Amino acid sequence: MDRDTMTGMTSPYHEQLANRRAETLARIFDAAEAIMNSGAELTAGAVADAVGIKRNSLYRYIDSIEDLRAGVVARHFPAWIAAVREAVGAARTGPAGAERGVRATAAFVEANLRQATLSGHGWLMQLGAGIRRTQLEGESGGHAALDELLSELVAEALPEAGAGARALPAAGAERRAIVAALIRGIILTGFTLIDQGGGATVIEESVRATRAILTS
Hints:
Elements: H1 3-7, H2 12-38, H3 44-51, H4 55-58, H5 65-74, H6 77-91, H7 98-119, H8 122-128, H9 133-136, H10 142-157, H11 173-195, H12 200-215
Helix pairs in contact: 2-3, 2-5, 5-8, 6-7, 6-10, 7-10, 7-11, 7-12, 8-11, 10-11, 11-12
């Protein structure tokens, strides 16, 4: 056993290696994101060439191209989800009920689309919908966190029959699931339109459509 292991300390040499690995990994993610954003095919060769390492060396840092693609998407989740939660929290004030649920769900849609506008990463979030959830989940919760929040908001916006003055007889679990899926579709379509140059009008119409679905 060497002295560093015995003392529980990391030598400057090992720290240097760890820092170098972290820097290379960041460059790999940056290169992969640039390739994905360009619309080109993400391949090990393309990433290795962009980073300036051998193709085989790339697999010292990643397990597969699929994992790399998921990692590029996942590293943007924490800040994105935090912004959405903050917007929903600001809208989710007052007595619980359908009106608050509609307001908060509209805020959820608006916050997601504003994040796409501000960050330019709507295409990444859209891509994330096609990646295995297990590859995206981390401390932020990934897509699952957003899906769970949306389901919770839709459930409040569409209460069970007899749960309030605006309760809808058909607002059961199946209807809520359908409505949540439709709202996800609105968001994904909004991402596409924003990536094509859309802005405030896309957000406004998406929010309007969300409210219409919830109050029809």
